[in-house]
TrEMBL record:
GO terms for molecular function: DNA binding; DNA-binding transcription factor activity. This is GntR family transcriptional regulator. The lineage of its organism: Bacteria, Pseudomonadati, Pseudomonadota, Alphaproteobacteria, Hyphomicrobiales. The keyword Transmembrane does not apply. Signal peptide: none annotated. Coiled coil: none annotated. It comes from Bradyrhizobium jicamae. Pfam families: FCD (PF07729), GntR (PF00392). Keywords: DNA-binding, Transcription, Transcription regulation. It comes from the Bacteria. Residues 9-77 form the HTH gntR-type domain. InterPro entries: GntR_C (IPR011711), TF_FadR/GntR_C (IPR008920), Tscrpt_reg_HTH_GntR (IPR000524), WH-like_DNA-bd_sf (IPR036388), WH_DNA-bd_sf (IPR036390).
Length: 245
């Protein structure tokens, strides 16, 4: 049963459906290793982030297990019948981050034009709270959310505040939790903290262009952090770095 190219307009769920069908048909049996992300992306004619989202969705369902440095393996099907319909409606992590990049970039740009001293103080408070957290977790999520909501609050628009908060809250979904498990660590948190400070500084400096760029770069780098290789490609990359390549 060959893989079929997926139309570009389709989302990761169609890729997950096709891989699930291959597993169900016996093309990939329990315990067997799937092709690498790169190979799947080439065969399916989709981006690697789309494949990443599909694999994460399948792991949440219990259909595959991702072993960093080894590969993606087929698991015994999990009893998730009551959960699957809800999971199917969840947007992919990369879709959400791209949406936030466009929206919050524009918000930060306007915030640099209209922020008051009280607005800056609220942003400062959230950054200071973030700096007290040593590792990604529940506390870091609370302070991170407070920062993005505080930036939106500069525009004095309740709709934008609500939308920014709701988009951020999508990080609580199972797909984001899986990505965070693999790729969030103290180093990634420190990088994100520095990016938040750059956003704050641009807003406080009344520099709309710099604020927009800083926010968009932060959310683009969040995508990059979640798009790091796992599986056999990750182990190969690690060996290259170890050799100084």
């Amino acid at each position: 049963m060959p893989l079929e190219a997926v139309e570009a307009r389709r989302l990761y769920r169609q890729v997950a459906d096709q891989l699930r069908a291959l597993i169900d048909s016996g093309e990939y049996g329990v315990g067997s290793r799937l092709p690498t992300e790169r190979d799947l992306a080439e065969q399916l004619k989709v981006s690697r982030p789309t494949v990443r989202e599909a694999l994460i969705a399948l792991e949440v369902e219990g259909r595959v297990r991702i072993r960093v440095g080894s590969g993606i393996y087929v698991s015994e099907p999990a009893a998730l019948a009551s959960v699957l319909p809800a999971l199917a409606e969840i947007e992919g992590p990369f879709e959400l981050l791209r949406a936030r990049e466009f929206l919050e970039g524009a918000i930060a740009e306007q915030a640099a034009r209209v922020a008051t001293a009280n607005d800056i103080a609220r942003i400062d408070a959230s950054v200071e709270a973030m700096a007290t957290v040593q590792h990604p977790g529940e506390a870091s999520m609370i302070h991170d959310r407070a920062f993005h909501v505080a930036v939106a609050g500069c525009l004095d628009n309740a709709v934008l505040v609500r939308v920014v908060g709701e988009l951020f809250d999508q990080r609580l979904n199972p797909y984001f939790a899986k990505l965070a498990h693999y790729f969030e660590n103290p180093a990634s948190w420190n990088a994100a903290l520095a990016e938040h400070r750059a956003i704050r500084d641009a807003i406080a400096a009344r520099d709309p262009d710099a604020a927009r760029v800083a926010m968009r770069e932060h959310l683009a780098r969040s995508q990059d952090r979640f798009a790091q290789n796992f599986g056999t490609e990750a182990s190969s990359a690690s060996r290259v770095r170890a050799r100084g390549g």
